[in-house]
Amino acid sequence: MVGRDASVEAIRDASQVLVVGRSPINRVVISKIVERSGLRPISESPDTAAKALRALVPGAIILDGGADNKDCDNLLSSIDALRRASGKSLPPVILLSNRTGTPQSLDLSTVVDAVVAKPITPERLQPVIDRLTNR
Asked: Which residues contact 105 (CB under 8 A, 6 or more apart)?
């Protein structure tokens, strides 16, 4: 069924993970960790990720927040709209941060489900991916 809402037209694919960050190197590292979980990464910059979200609803989203956790803020409203349309807080969102803490303690958006502190390592990120995607 296709409605006026763009999120209805998007295809949900639980096997794909949208990896968003300004640094191409970080996106490659994150994508390799996503692959280790048996999922398929889609790597985008914050500027192009909104277009990808209109075409596909991934199984999870990983945001590299950059130095101040703000690099991907322009996507938060789109992600929030997807989650409201799903009725379930899906897809889950992981923020990679230079600071440690919970989304609440870091005063982050309510769309962020988990925070993983940098440096990005498989030992830190993969268990969170597996837990949030039920793998």
From this structure: none
Cα Rg, the chain, nearest whole Å: 14
Q: Is the pLDDT of residue 2 over 70?
A: no
Indicate the helix (H) or strand (E) that contains 26.
Answer: helix 24-36
Separation of alpha carbons 30 and 25, rounded Å: 9
- Written as six digits, the tokens of 119 are 């440096």
Buried b (16+ CB within 10 A) or exposed e, 97-118: beeeeebeeeebbebbbbbbeb
Over residues 64-83, the pLDDT tens digits come to 999 888 999 999 999 999 88
Per-residue pLDDT reduced to its tens digit, 36-58: 999 999 999 999 999 999 888 89
Which among 95, 21, 11 has a CA at the least distance from the CA of 58? 11
pTM value > 0.85:
yes
Compute the distance between CA of residue 51 and CA of residue 109 in angstroms, rounded to an integer. 21
Q: Report DSSP state, residue 66.
A: T
